[in-house]
Amino acid sequence: MIRVSLLFGAALLLSACSSKPEVPIMEVESQQLHQRVNAKGQDEFAFVVTVKATPQVNLDTTKPVSRRELKRFAQQQRVEDSPELKLKLEDEAVARLRQALEDASYCESGYKIERVFWRNRSVQLRGVCQ
Description:
Largest sheet: 4 strands, antiparallel
Strand order of the largest sheet: 1-2-4-3
Distance between the termini: 71 Å
Protein name: Lipoprotein
Keywords: Signal
Number of domains: 1
Number of helices: 3
Oligomer: single chain
Radius of gyration: 22 Å
Low-confidence stretches: 16-23
Helix content: 25-40%
Order of helices and strands: HEEHHEE
Mean pLDDT: 80
Organism: Pseudoalteromonas rubra
Strand content: 25-35%
Shape: elongated
């Protein structure tokens, strides 16, 4: 009897955890591909990927803070503050760049990313076609 209720409880707990939708850490807001020919006659590009702002969790210090609120505050990550999320965004931008160049039929012989620029919630990849 105890085993059945423990098994039922565990199954209920697992199904509740698995049905909870996972909130994306960062969501891409926009991407832009800019193309031009430089002074040397080379085709070059700038590709900008921007993510949506993550609202900052604020703690109300005028009343006692629950463990849940404190844990959520400690675990919050924003692209602006997290080197780990910046690297994930950069990886995402590289993957999206490949697709954007292919869709635009640009740099069909290949390309080289030469510089990466960061701004609050966006990353810019600059490079040349080969």
